[in-house]
Amino acid sequence: MNIFKKLILGAALTLGSGACLAADVTLRYNQWFPSQHWSQKDGLYKYFEEIEKVTEGRVKVRPSAKPLAPPTKNYQAVLSGIADIAWGPHGYTPGAFLLTEMVEFPFLTYDAGISSKAYWRTYKKFFEPTGMQDGVITLAMHVTSGGNIHMRTEDISTPDDFYGKKMRVQTSVLGNALQSLGAVPISGSLSELREFLSRGIIDGTMLSDELLYGFKVNKYVNKVTQIPGGIYTNSAFIIMNKQKWERISLKDRTAIMEISGEKLSVKMGRLWHENDIDARAKLIESLGDDYQVASESLIKAIDTSFEEGRTRWFEKAKEQGINGEQALDYYKKLVINLDSKL
Fold it and tell me: pLDDT value at position 18?
C-alpha cells in the first residue's frame, strides 16, 4: 500500500511539474516600432496586459529592448523562433503574402475599425483555408487607415502633377500604380522616412495622416491631398510562434484567443481610425488650403492606375485556389453592411 501511495504521489508531482512548465511562459515581442507610438502603448501593450490578466499571470509578453529583427523579417523571425510575437505590415515583404494585396487597392478604407472587422472575416473565409500563415499562430489581421498624398513643396492636384516626382512607397502594388502615372517610386521603411524627407531624397510619400505625427515628420510636409477611402491601405498581422504557443496550457490558449481574432483586429483598426481623425484636424488647422481633397479627375486617374494591379491580383488569387473577384466583393459588401449597422 505504501509503495502504491508513493507511486501515486510521484506521478502527481511529475504531472504538476509538467503543468507548470506548460503554463508559465514569457513571450518575446519584436519591438521595432517606436514604443511610445499609440499603436504600441495604447494597442499592443494593452493587449499584452490583457494576456497576462486572462491567464492569471502564467503568460507574459515582454517587448525586446532593441529589434530582434527588422520589419522586413518580422514574419520570418516568428517562424524561426527568433521572436515569439510580432506585429507588422505584410507589404514589407513583397510577394510573400500575395492574398493580402487585396486591401492595398484604393478607396476601400473609410474607417479602419470597420474595415478590420471585414478583413478578419474575409481572411477566415477565403485566405486562411489556402494555408496562408499556417507556419504561425495568427492572433489578428487588421488594416491601417487609408493613405493620403503628403508632399514637401509641390502639391498633387492633377494626374500630371505626379510626373517625375520621387515618391516613397511601402508596397509594390502602390509603387507600380504610381509608376504608371509617371512618378518615380522609391522603396523605404518608416524608419527611413525622416531622412528621406529632411534631405530631399523624396518629393513626397503616401501615408495615413496620423503617421506624420507618430513619426514626427509633419514639419517636412507642406502639401496634402486627401484621397477619400485612401490611395492604399496597409494589411497588418499579429502572430505568435507555434512552438511557444504549444507550451501554453490549453486553458490559457483558449483565454488568449477569446481576446484575439476579430476583437483584437477591430481594436487595432479602431485605434488607427481615431488617431487618424485627430491628425487630420491638426493638419487642416496648420495647412489651411494646402490640405485639399482630391478632384474627381485625380481619383479617376488613380483608379485607372491600379487596374493592371487588380487584374494581376485576381490571377494570383486564382493560382492560390480562390476566386479573387468573389473575395473582394465579399470584403466590400461586409464593409458597407457593417458601416450601416453603426
Answer: 42
